[in-house]
Design brief:
Elements (H helix, E strand, L loop, with lengths): L8 H12 L3 H14 L4 E7 L5 E6 L9 H4 L15 H6 L5 H7 L2 E7 L6 E7 L2 E8 L4 E7 L6 H6 L3 H18 L4 E6 L2 E5 L6 H14 L2 E8 L2 E8 L11 E5 L2 E3 L2 H11 L11 E6 L5 E3 L8 E3 L2 H19 L25 E7 L2 E7 L33 H15 L4 E7 L3 E6 L2 E6 H15 L5 E11 L2 H8 L2 H6 L3 E4 L4 E8 L7 H14 L4 H16 L9 H12 L14 E5 H7 L9
Parallel strand pairs: 1-7, 11-13
Antiparallel strand pairs: 1-2, 2-6, 3-4, 3-6, 4-5, 7-8, 9-10, 10-13, 11-12, 14-15, 16-17, 18-19, 19-20, 20-24, 21-23, 22-23
Helix pairs in contact: 1-5, 2-7, 9-10, 12-16, 12-17, 13-15, 15-16
The structure holds adenosine-5'-diphosphate and magnesium ion (MG).
Length: about 600
């Protein structure tokens, strides 16, 4: 049997260090957390080549007294825990006194630090766990820690590093999270010589969000706030059109601490289903408040993953808060027209002020009033006239002796049900988009998406789907997978309006279909529904939803195909008159608006300019 060796101390330390410091981002996280703990109000992070070559964190915190500097680099050296009672802090905040020791074991680490009680600061360099320099240095109060050549002495770790860009993005994501958890701290992040993030540090979360998530997100915020089952959820979510390609914009805080929670993420994404495009992810900054005893922060403090004693409750709280906020705050996306280059400057159509210029009259200089010529022609924007159709209401007046009152009542009825003076149908473009005007805004409506959404909403609302029995039941032959999916879901299919019967041997008998679809190619339809069902989850309600998607998509009028003006008018009215018709069931917006103001800006008609 092989002899059991106790590992030499330096090897044991390297192994331990590798666990704390897996990649450059972990170093940045530890260093920035230390700066936060030191009470810094300004933290600057600089990295080169994804942090592999160089990382530095500068803060204006309390600094470390000279005598304490060597201790800070020792394992289990921490100023944050001294008694056994403080041990809880290990689990909650990750004070294990391990970070500086680990970082300096696997890199060349330099610290420059001074406390407010000292006149001079301290410079200390530790390379691969060995102190090489320790001397006095002039510096500001605070701490600068520089980490060079990470993993230079642990080539195995080095191999696991990803590309510079990936590591840098990882660091950027960590700083984003830090900046959002601490709006009271001014963060600066310099990546390969370029400043890529600054936050105000004024304590205003909105400002921090604006800096971190960008203007687009900040301008598309919807406030969300609710308390469900004792769980408070509050913060900001983005409008569905601003969803991102990845989950980097999803931020959850639990009792003030930034966390990762699959449950919260799933709830958020579920709430955006049907509003956001498939494959896109919402942005959010949500603060979840729960009684502390219901949370189990994972024992490994480097991980931010948390578990809740009742995940379902958290799911519901996040889901309903977001869903409610989305329904409340929904508005149609707006088209911004970038002003194009205009050769006729200025664009104003009014005459400029009269001015006086000196002119010579009979050798005498006099002043003369002149009026500059009009600089551009007035652009008159004439939209086609359109008479709103007056639909006849089914009101029969048989009795000649009806009283005035009755006539008034009838008139009122007619006006109320028929005239919608604020929606004006303008026309159709590319056989695909309806153009309509309402309240100083022009809407471009995707006719297919709109119709699809309207059908989908009505399918979901009505408990019974209108069914059409087929004169001759249709036998549909399916592939093995399609067949099994269909026969396993006959009940759900029936609720969606499809009467399907197992006919054995890979065939099913279709007896009735939703009336909406009676003219469709039913063979194709059934196999499409089978496809939809086989890719989605097992929950019944969701399956029905998916069938509704397919049905409404199939039955809706198609883009690029001719549709009568009458149908389009009705559609425009339905879309603009119903705030529930915002997105098609796949999450594409149904309509965009162009405001009068935006147009005026484009034509230089803003300000006092009239005509
Ligand atoms: P921990 O943070 O778990 O205490 P670290 O190894 O990260 O352990 O840090 C060790 C000690 O060094 C800290 O407890 C703190 O006293 C000191 N320290 C580290 N970084 C800073 C800093 N930026 N400013 C002031 N003190 C610091
Ligand atoms: Mg620390």
């Amino acid at each position: 049997m092989a002899k059991i060796n106790v590992l030499p101390k330096n090897i044991a330390e390297l192994i331990a260090a590798g666990e704390v410091v897996e990649r450059p981002g972990a170093v940045i996280k530890e260093l920035v957390e230390n700066s936060v703990d030191a009470g810094a109000t300004k933290i600057t992070v600089e990295i080169k080549r994804g942090g592999i070559l160089y990382m530095s964190v500068t803060d204006n915190g309390c600094g470390i007294a000279r005598d304490d500097v060597p201790t800070a680099f020792k394992r289990h050296a921490t100023s944050k825990i001294s008694t056994a009672e403080d041990l809880d802090a290990i689990y909650t905040l990750g004070f294990r006194g391990e970070a500086l020791a680990a970082i300096s074991a696997v890199s060349k680490t330099e610290i420059i630090t001074r406390t407010k009680d000292e006149c001079d600061g301290t410079l200390c360099v530790v390379e691969g766990g060995v102190q090489t320099i320790f001397e006095e240095v002039g510096c500001d109060v605070g701490t600068i820690i520089t980490v060079r050549d990470i993993f230079y002495n642990t080539p195995a770790r080095m191999k696991f590093l990803k590309s510079d860009v990936t590591e840098a993005n990882h660091i950027a994501a960590i700083i984003d999270r830090m900046a959002l958890s601490h709006p009271e701290i001014a963060f600066r992040f310099i990546r390969d010589g370029k400043q890529v993030l600054t936050t105000a540090g004024d304590g205003n979360l909105n400002n921090a969000i604006y800096s971190v998530l960008g203007r687009e997100f900040a301008s598309s915020l919807i406030t969300a706030e609710d308390r469900i089952d004792g769980i408070g959820v509050s913060g900001m979510i983005c409008k569905p059109v601003y969803c991102k390609q990845n989950r980097n914009g999803e931020f959850f805080f639990l009792n003030g601490r930034l966390i990762r929670s699959n449950t919260a993420m799933a709830a958020l994404e579920q709430a955006y289903k049907n509003s956001a495009m498939v494959g896109k992810f919402p942005c959010c900054v949500l603060f979840i408040d729960v009684p502390p005893e219901t949370v189990d922060v994972n024992v490994h403090p480097a991980k931010t993953e948390v578990r809740f004693s009742d995940e379902r409750k958290i799911f519901n709280a996040v889901y309903y808060t977001v869903k409610n906020a989305l329904t409340k705050g929904d508005t149609r996306p707006e088209i911004k027209v970038k002003p194009t280059f205009n050769p006729y400057t200025p664009v104003f159509t009014e005459r400029a002020e009269q001015t006086t210029i000196p002119v010579k009259v009979n050798e005498q200089v006099v002043t003369k009033k002149v009026t500059p010529p009009e600089v551009t022609k007035t652009l008159k924007f004439e939209s086609p006239k359109f008479e709103f159709p007056v639909y006849k209401n089914e009101v029969e007046i048989k009795d000649d002796t009806v009283t005035e009152n009755k006539i008034e009542e009838v008139k009122k009825q007619v006006t109320e049900t028929v005239i919608k003076p604020d929606i004006r149908y303008i026309g159709q473009a590319f056989n695909t988009y309806i153009i309509a005007e309402q309240d100083g805004e022009i809407y471009f409506i995707d006719k297919h998406a709109a119709h699809e959404r309207i059908l989908y909403n009505s399918l979901k609302k009505n408990s019974k789907v209108d069914m059409q029995e087929l004169l001759v039941p249709l036998t549909v032959t399916l592939t093995k997978e399609e067949y099994s999916v269909i026969i396993n879901n006959t009940e759900t299919l029936l609720s969606a309006g499809f009467d399907v019967e197992d006919f054995g041997n890979g065939t099913v008998l279709l007896r009735a279909v939703p009336t909406l679809l009676k003219d469709e190619d039913l063979n194709l339809l059934i196999s499409e529904i089978a496809d939809t069902l086989s890719v989605t989850g097992a929950v019944n309600a969701e399956r029905l939803d998916d069938i509704f998607h397919t049905v409404s998509c199939k039955a809706a009028i198609k883009g690029n195909k001719y549709t009568t003006d009458y149908e389009l008018k009705v559609l425009a009215e339905k879309v603009l008159g119903d705030s529930e018709v915002m997105y098609c069931p796949h999450g594409r917006p149904v309509a965009f608006k162009l405001t009068k103001k935006e147009l005026e800006k484009h034509f230089g008609r803003t300000g006092s300019v009239s005509v």
